TrEMBL record:
Coiled coil: none annotated. GO terms for molecular function: beta-glucosidase activity. The keyword Hydrolase applies. Keywords: Hydrolase. This is Glycoside hydrolase family 3 C-terminal domain-containing protein.
């Protein structure tokens, strides 16, 4: 409390003279646009949202052609709501997925909305449409949860651990897909799910978090091809909860994260698809000085569509005298590459980041010897390899 009051005093929030408080006047002038409502703020929120979308699967269903669609079904409990995540600010406005899709299509396109399948609404909507977009996921606060309990086993939040990784609404996805083979699963979630059935059967899957007031517009930009997706998974999505160690096992080395996990996964760390295709042609050069290693690779966009690629560099330590991760992300760059263009991409790794924590010395130690450098499109999609000696 003392710290909060001290900061408030420093900022002038407790001054009796309100004219000295610069925050009270923000947005109060009728001629002044509130800072989060300006055109630039809206544009930035939309851009960041679109850039965060991860394309998990696409069997030539995406991007959608707004000019050819007559009817679109937008289905699911997260199709027309924006939910706030933990400790987030209150959005100044909300653009839901339903609203974003309406904004993206041409005039005259019919949007059929069904929040759930009561009275068969979802199935009827999907069957009547050219394409069905089903939006499912989780509420960050938990579904009907109190402080330490949630009736939904796959829910998780502060004070509540997840007991399952299954997606409760995957049954709704199955019903929609049965009614319309052109189904897109939009997973709006705080964390991964074991959506093995959907990965096998649904033609297109995208993941988006509870991200912003521009959620609907940003997602629609990706679905309709205005933005070419290049988001990446920031976790390993396992196939089954039994692929993970016991919840009471806190040792990361016992199979947690991409650094130590063994066996096949649903989606690896750093994974994400694009509407473009990229070829990693060759390693152009390895250079090192006293502080840094610089690796330059050439990457070509082999498709007819401009796109972005996230070039990732991982390191492994085959000569290490201690137990080290199988690989560690040490650098990445997200770069735009035009259709047919080849770009040289340089990734820089500070040598100190190749060290490990030596408990005896109570310091990070960089071992002399060979370091294997792995360059690719995800932690499991390694395209180029090289070695360097420290």
């Amino acid at each position: 409390i003392r710290g909060n009051i001290f900061v408030a005093l420093k900022l002038g929030l407790l001054d009796g003279d309100n004219s000295r408080n610069p925050y009270l006047s923000i947005g109060k002038n009728s001629t002044e646009t509130p800072p989060f409502m300006t055109a630039e703020a809206r544009r930035l929120a939309r851009e960041v949202t679109a850039k965060s979308v991860v394309l998990l699967k696409n069997k030539k269903l995406l991007p959608l052609d707004a000019g050819k669609l007559r009817k679109i079904a937008v289905i699911g409990p997260y199709s027309d709501k924006i939910v706030q995540d933990w400790y987030s600010g209150t959005p100044p406005y909300e653009t839901t997925i339903l609203s974003g899709i309406r904004n993206a299509v041409k005039e005259g396109t019919e949007i059929i909305h069904a929040e759930d399948n009561r009275m068969g609404q979802a199935e009827k909507a999907a069957a009547a449409a050219d394409v069905a977009i089903v939006c499912v996921g989780n509420h960050p606060y938990g579904t009907r949860a109190d402080w330490k309990f949630s009736p939904v086993p796959s829910d998780g939040r502060e004070a509540v651990d997840r007991k399952s990784l299954m997606l409760p609404d995957e049954d709704l996805v199955k019903l929609v897909l049965k009614a319309n083979p052109n189904t897109i699963l939009v997973l709006v979630s705080s964390f991964p799910y074991t959506i093995n059935w959907s990965q096998e059967h649904v033609p297109a899957i995208v993941h988006i978090t509870h991200c912003s007031q521009e959620q609907g517009n940003g997602l629609a930009d990706v679905l309709f091809g205005k933005v070419n997706p290049a988001g990446r998974t920031v976790q390993t999505w396992v196939k089954d909860i039994t692929d993970l160690p016991d919840i009471m096992d806190y040792d990361i080395r016992n199979g947690r994260t991409y650094m130590y996990h063994q066996g096949p996964v649903l989606y690896p760390f750093g994974y994400g698809l694009s509407y473009s295709d990229f070829a990693y042609e060759k390693i152009e050069s390895f250079k090192q000085d006293k502080k840094n290693i610089r690796v330059t690779v050439s990457v070509k966009n082999t498709s007819g569509r401009d796109g972005e690629e996230v070039v990732q560099l991982y390191a492994s330590y085959p000569e290490s005298k201690v137990e080290r991760p199988s690989k560690q992300l040490r650098a990445f760059r997200r770069i735009p590459i035009k259709a047919g263009e080849t770009r040289k991409v340089t990734l820089t790794v500070p040598k100190e980041e190749l060290g490990y924590w030596n408990e005896g010395k109570q310091m990070f130690v960089v071992e002399p010897g060979t370091v294997k450098l792995l360059i690719g499109a995800s932690s499991e999609d390694i395209r180029l390899e090289g070695k360097i000696r420290l």
